[in-house]
């Protein structure tokens, strides 16, 4: 950045006082201060944006490293499972004299049934209950306000 010492700032102030004049100098100084503040905020925003983009690039690199590590682990596990399956199939063929166990099991077992929603309708089930049972069980059939409920259960001598 520019290196301004006290002597250079005093020289600039004296020239500004002569050129601009003592009446307009405070207004110009405020304007210059406002513009310098805006410039500093803009520079700070640009620095923050650059730092965010650098952090984002680092996170993307880290993500790609984790993805490759996960793929490598998956491939190694898959290879181990395949080798174990081959050894098991070979042993099964040696013991039974048949084809592979997976082929035999898939030929015998039917495919699992597809999931079906039970289609329960609680309104229908609730509507099928007789009214006498609802009254006996104390199930409310109609919505009633609190004041109406109090008035309903008030003793006969206190009713209005």
UniProtKB/TrEMBL annotation:
Keywords annotated in UniProt: Cell inner membrane, Cell membrane, Membrane, Protein transport, Translocation, Transmembrane, Transmembrane helix, Transport
The keyword Protein transport belongs to this UniProt entry's keyword annotation: yes
Gene3D superfamilies referenced in this protein's UniProt entry, alphabetically: 1.20.5.3310
Pfam families: TatA_B_E (PF02416)
Domain of life: Bacteria
MF-aspect GO terms: protein transmembrane transporter activity
Region (Disordered): 137-160
GO BP term, example: protein transport by the Tat complex
Cell compartments where the protein resides: Cell membrane; Membrane
Entry GO terms, CC: TAT protein transport complex
Function: Part of the twin-arginine translocation (Tat) system that transports large folded proteins containing a characteristic twin-arginine motif in their signal peptide across membranes. Together with TatC, TatB is part of a receptor directly interacting with Tat signal peptides. TatB may form an oligomeric binding site that transiently accommodates folded Tat precursor proteins before their translocation.
Assigned protein family: Belongs to the TatB family.
Record's protein name: Sec-independent protein translocase protein TatB
Organism: Pelomonas aquatica
Lineage of the species this protein comes from: Bacteria, Pseudomonadati, Pseudomonadota, Betaproteobacteria, Burkholderiales
